[in-house]
Design brief:
It comes from Brevibacillus brevis (strain 47 / JCM 6285 / NBRC 100599). Belongs to the DCK/DGK family. It is an enzyme of class 2 (transferase). GO terms for molecular function: ATP binding; deoxyguanosine kinase activity. With about 210 residues, this protein is of the alpha/beta class. The protein has one domain: P-loop containing nucleotide triphosphate hydrolases (Rossmann fold, 3-Layer(aba) Sandwich), CATH 3.40.50. The protein is built from eight helices and five strands, in the order E-H-E-H-H-E-H-H-E-H-H-E-H. Strands 2-3-1-4-5 form a five-stranded parallel β-sheet, sandwiched between helices. Helix 1 crosses helix 8 and helix 4 packs across helix 7. The radius of gyration is 17 Å and the shape is globular.
Amino acid sequence: MKSILITVEGPIGIGKTSLSRELSRACNLQLLEEIVYENPFLGKFYENIAEWSFQLEMFFLCNRYKQLQDIHSQFLNQGISVVSDYNIFKNTIFAKRTLQGNNLPKYLKIYDILTEDLPQAHLVIYMTASIETVMKRIAMRDREMERSMDVTYMENLIADYNEFMDAFEKHHPDTPVIKFDCDDLDFVHRPEDLKYVLDRIAPRIQALMGQEG
């Protein structure tokens, strides 16, 4: 049985961490959660995206790089499979939306260098939804730093994610992607929705790990 890396992706507020935790329990996977609210630039970023985007993105990149290094050495190399509530490719999605001028090419060069030898996902779970659903769920969880979230920024981010994932599937045909439209799914509050999602994902994980279904 081989160890694999599963990543859960989608826009802010879509339920990535909740689903990752459920998958960790259901499939006996090591859980990796990204460091978000420890980022000292996050609150400032939501208030002034142009001013604080480079600092924010560099903090995220360096922390995610270190996390994935540790995951590789401490778990994947030891035969332990991992589910993560992010894929490091998200860095390029956010950077292309927020970085301006010479900051973007500089950032992308650093990204390419840091991620060259990092473990890549064996399975990507992608969740998306309309702007109305995403904003509703952000409001429901009521995190202070997200109260000033710009709707236009979020709308553009959802479009960026969808465009990126379309391109990702074309350029990475050997990496399976499972998609969920979360407008009609609420696996956090509806057990039947959670069962539906897990029933779709678990057999794919078992197959990739070489387990009998």
